[in-house]
Design a protein that fits this description.
460 residues; 3-hydroxy-3-methylglutaryl-coenzyme A Reductase, Chain A, domain 2; 3 domains; 4-stranded antiparallel β-sheet; 19% strand; disordered C terminus; binds (R)-mevalonate
């Protein structure tokens, strides 16, 4: 049985992490070897897109502590931004204390759109389409026998009248298609293209566009969590307003303070689109990282999320935060989640297959439930930091490592230089260089050399 609790994972070497991960997930190391081998070879990438010249890599981290619908799950996240994996893991630990994440998803229904133009009477054409609905659905249903075998297929047909547009009125036909474990774009686009001649014959118009909608509002994933209020209390060091700038003091936050701070932060996003965009970006930090790790189309997920956030006509928060009758913090997240575990990169990318194996998911719906839970955890991580000590402190230590590397630190010196900058609360390349200079004799030698342009050109 998988456990998502691996104490000390952060401090292990890469090799140790691989071994512990396979052990915790009940997998053979071979099943997860794609990650040690770099995921994808250039040869395997060549047929995936055009004009391939190589690969582009991202760090792949594992979010720990997640429990979704009573099951532990280790979550792979592909992302370049520091603090995201740590934030998700920490919030999953707090959520665990309240029973973990409860998640659900609707049937995997996608919408295919057909734009029908050049129609003399829009309302008459609309009703004619409804008169032929059964036969249109039967035709669409027969298009993909594999999907049908697994229980998918055409489910419904809806017709909308667009009265006015830059080209005048037209009809929009929505084909609702159950795509089971696929993301669904191929099945739906094929079905729309195949139905078009019949729709033209029925309406007397011309079917112009035939394409899936990324506003996948029939395929909604939902997650909620309850964080016991006492779990939210914490102590840290930081700057307080009544001390001169630069001086730090011990800070302590009660659970109630943190809870109310998170709720007030959510209220900001609920009321203001400028804040909602950033709030939802924080959710997508978690969502996209898992979507990418599993080889899914993150542009589709992004498009669906933001369109859904604006569905009322005003862009707003995808999540909500409030309290329950006992004063515990309650978070919810609802968003479209068109992800698959069959077809496309999910099938041909070895790292994506390893990700699906690690999570032990058997259906696209299970994957969607995990992803929406990670989105909620990530949102809480950002709000907790913003509502208390600010986002920079958490970011600082990881950011400091990157600055140390940029200043020329390597090996053990990375941690040493970063730790000193964090302690001093000065994370800048010039300071990193100074610290490095003090720490490293080799570095001093290198620094004492004349600037590169003044050195003798070894190739001349
Ligand atoms: C940064 O990548 C994400 C945050 O800006 C999200 C938020 O503000 O809620 C921290």
């Amino acid at each position: 049985m998988t456990t998502s609790r691996i104490p000390g994972f952060y401090n292990m070497t890469l090799e140790e992490r691989h071994a512990r991960l396979a052990d915790a997930a009940g997998q053979t190391p071979e099943n997860l070897s794609a990650w040690t081998l770099g995921g994808l070879s250039a040869e395997a990438a060549d047929p995936m897109i055009e004009n391939v010249i190589g690969l582009h890599s991202l760090p792949l981290g594992i979010a720990l502590n997640f429990q979704v619908n009573g099951k532990d799950v280790l979550v792979p996240m592909a992302i370049e931004e520091p603090s995201v994996v740590a934030g998700a893991s920490f919030m999953a630990k707090l959520a665990r204390a309240g029973g973990g994440f409860k998640a659900t998803i609707t049937d995997p229904l996608m919408i295919g759109q057909m734009q029908v133009i050049n129609i003399v009477n829009l309302h008459e054409a609309k009703l004619k389409l409804y008169e032929h609905k059964a036969e249109l659905l039967a035709e669409a249903d027969a298009i993909d026998p594999v999907l049908k075998k697994f229980g998918g297929g055409a489910r419904d047909l809806e017709v909308r009248v667009i009265e006015d547009s830059p080209i005048g009125g037209f009809l929009v036909v929505h084909l609702i298609y159950d795509v089971r474990d696929a993301m669904g774009a191929n099945a739906v686009n094929t079905a729309c293209e195949r139905l078009a001649p019949k729709v033209e014959a029925i309406t007397g118009g011309k079917v112009h566009l035939r394409i899936l909608s990324n506003l996948a509002d029939r395929r909604i994933a939902r997650a909620r969590c309850t964080i016991p209020v006492k779990e939210l209390a914490f102590e840290t060091v930081g700057q307080v307003s009544n001390l001169p700038s630069g001086q730090i003091a011990n800070l302590s936050y009660s659970g109630e303070q943190v809870r109310d701070g998170i709720i007030a932060a959510y209220a900001f996003a609920a009321a203001d689109p400028y804040r909602a965009a950033t709030h939802n970006k924080g959710i997508m930090n978690g969502v996209d990282a898992v979507v990418i790790a599993t080889g899914n189309d993150w542009r589709a997920i992004e498009a669906g999320a933001h369109a859904y956030a604006a569905r009322s006509g005003k862009y707003t928060s995808l999540s909500t935060w409030g309290k329950d009758k006992d004063g515990n913090l309650v978070g919810t997240l609802e968003m479209p989640m068109a992800v698959g575990i069959v077809g496309g990169a999910t099938k041909v990318h070895p790292a994506a297959q390893a990700a699906v194996k690690l999570m032990g998911v058997k259906t696209a719906s299970e994957l969607a439930e995990i992803i929406v839970s990670v989105g909620l955890a990530q949102n809480m991580a950002a709000l907790r930091a913003l509502a208390t000590e600010g986002i920079q402190r958490g970011h600082m230590s990881l950011h400091a490592r990157q600055v140390a590397i940029a200043a020329g630190a390597s090996g053990e010196l990375i941690e040493k230089v970063a730790a000193q900058m964090v302690a001093e609360k000065v994370v800048r390349i010039d300071r990193a260089e100074e610290i490095l200079k003090n720490f490293s004799e080799d570095f001093m030698e290198e620094r004492n050399q004349p600037p590169v342009q003044d050195r003798e050109n070894p190739f001349s």
